[in-house]
Amino acid sequence: MTFKRMTVLCMLVCALSIPGVARASLYAHYTFDETSGPGVSDSSGNDRDLSETSSGNALTYGQTGQFDSALFFNGTDGNPGGKFLLMTPDAGMPGDGDEITIVFWANSANNWSTDNAIICDYNANGMRFSVGLNSSNYGLTIGVANGSASGGTSPPPNSGKAYVKLDGTGTSGVNLSANTWHHFAIAFSNNAISAIYIDGNAVVEDGDSYWYFNDVNNFTIGGRIVGTSTPFVFKGLLDDFAIYNEVLSKSAIENIMANGVIPEPASLALIAVGAGLLLSKRSRR
User: Fold this and answer.
1) Phi and psi, residue 88, nearest 5°
2) At what angle do helices 265-283 and 3-17 cross, to 10 degrees?
3) C-alpha distances out from residue 73 to 32, 140, 231, 254, Å
4) pTM of the complete model beyond 0.90
5) Which of 25, 131, 237, 275 has the smallest C-beta neighbourhood within 10 Å, fewest atoms?
6) Vertex 53: Cα angle to 147 and 37 (nearest 5)
7) pLDDT > 90 fraction of the chain, expressed in percent and rounded
C-alpha cells in the first residue's frame, strides 16, 4: 500500500472512530476566535450567535486562548459591571428534562471564588440552568431546574444545585490559581446535575447551593440578567465554549480537552466520504 493510500485510509478511520462525542450534536459552539466585535458567532451551524450587552467595561477580543483566540470579560461586582454576551433562546434550545453537557475553558483574572456568572439560561422550552463562581462557597456553583417550577430566579426545593470548592479545602481537593487555564464540563439530566468534571477529573459536590437563573427568555455567557440587579460579570478569559445534547462520557470530555470541540457528525461524515471516494478513485488507476 502506498503512503498516500495509507494516509487516506487513516483519515477515514479517524473520522469514524472519534470516541463518544462524534455521535453527539451541538446546541451551540463558541470558539471566541473573533479578532474584533461586537458579538461572537456560533460555530455549530445552528445560527445561535451572541450579541454584546450595551453598557459596562468593554470585551477584549483576540486574546491568547487554549485553542487559537479567547475572549476577555472585564467584569466587576458593580452594575452594569462589564459587557457580556446574550441571545434570545429559540425553540431548539434544551427543554424540560433534556440531557446536556456544557464544556468550556476558563481563566479567572481575580480568583475562583469571586461572584461571577459564567453561563445562565432561562428559555421557553421549560429548562433553566446556570454555572458561575460564588464567594460564599469558595468556588464553582451550579443550578438546574424545570423552567415552569416555582422559585423565580432561584432553583426551587429538591432541584439540582451544587457547589464545588476550588480553593483546596473541598472534598475533591481542587485548588485553582488565578490567571491559569482550566477545563470545566457540567452535565445535566432530568433537571438534575449528572456529573461535574474539572480538568478531566470527576469531582464531588461539597454542598447544595446555586447561582441565580436569568429572567425569562435570556441565554447569556459571561454575565446574567435578573431584573435590574447586579449582573456579576465574569472577569477573565473564556475559550471553546459548547453545549452538547447528551451527557458526555469521561473519555469524550478528555478528548475535547485535548483536541477541542469535535465537529458535527455531518462534518465527520463528509470527511469519511471524501476520504473513501479518494481511496476508491486511486485504486482504479
Assistant:
1) -90, 120
2) 160
3) 12, 17, 12, 26
4) no
5) 25
6) 125
7) 43
What domains are there in the chain, each with its CATH number?
A: 21-263 (2.60.120.200)
User: What's the pLDDT tens digit per position in 243-255?
Assistant: 999 999 999 999 9
Nearest to 194 by CA among 275, 152, 250: 250
How high is the pLDDT of residue 30? 97
Q: Tell me, what's the pLDDT at 230?
A: 67
Q: Three-state DSSP class for 281?
A: helix
**Rg of the chain, C-alpha, whole Å:** 20
CB atoms within 10 A of CB 1: 6
Amino acid identity for residue 6 in this structure:
M
Q: How many CB atoms are closer than 10 A to CB 2?
A: 8
Alpha carbon distance 126, 40 (integer Å): 26
Q: What is the DSSP string of 39-105?
A: -B--TTSS---BEE-SSSBPPEEEEE-SSSEEEEEE--SSSS-B--EEE---TTS--TT--EEEEEE
d(CA 57, CA 121): 22
Is 145 or 49 the better-scoring residue by pLDDT? 49
Nearest to 196 by CA among 235, 250, 244: 250
Q: Nearest 10 degrees: CA dihedral of 216, 221, 222, 225? A: -10
Q: What is the pLDDT of residues 56-73, one digit of tens each?
A: 889 999 999 999 999 999
